UniProtKB/TrEMBL annotation:
Source organism of the structure: Mangrovibacter plantisponsor
Alphabetized InterPro entries for the sequence: BolA (IPR002634), BolA-like_sf (IPR036065), BolA/IbaG_stress_morph_reg (IPR050961)
SUPFAM superfamilies per record: BolA-like
Protein name: DNA-binding transcriptional regulator BolA
A Pfam family that the UniProt record links to this protein: BolA
Length: 104
């Protein structure tokens, strides 16, 4: 449900040519079924004139309610269309969580 909510908001705000949202909560030290850690790959023309930090701030602004609540972390990979054309299939995996699987 949270994944779909994030996708709907990002679709509406950025009109992306590519979007991929992965729930990576299972890789972290959270209870089963948590929807708290996400990896977002977002490709939009709206990023063409923006640097990485500004792109991330734009995404954080759109997802402010989610970040203030249930979502603990976002791994953001934001690209302009021209950048994406040169980088397809090279999005790096998220690093492993140090505490994964150790919830007591």
């Amino acid at each position: 449900m949270m994944r779909a909510q994030i996708e709907a908001k990002l679709q509406a705000a950025f009109d992306p040519v590519f979007i991929d949202i992965l729930d990576e909560s299972y890789r972290h030290n959270v209870p089963a079924g948590s929807e708290s850690h996400f990896k977002v790959v977002l490709v939009s023309d709206k990023f063409s004139a923006e640097r990485m930090l500004a792109r991330h701030r734009l995404v954080y602004a759109v997802l402010a309610d989610e970040l203030a609540g249930q979502v603990h972390a976002l791994a953001l990979h934001t690209y302009s269309v021209s950048e994406w054309e040169n980088l397809q299939d090279t999005v790096l995996p998220s690093p492993p969580c140090r505490g994964a699987g150790t919830l007591a």
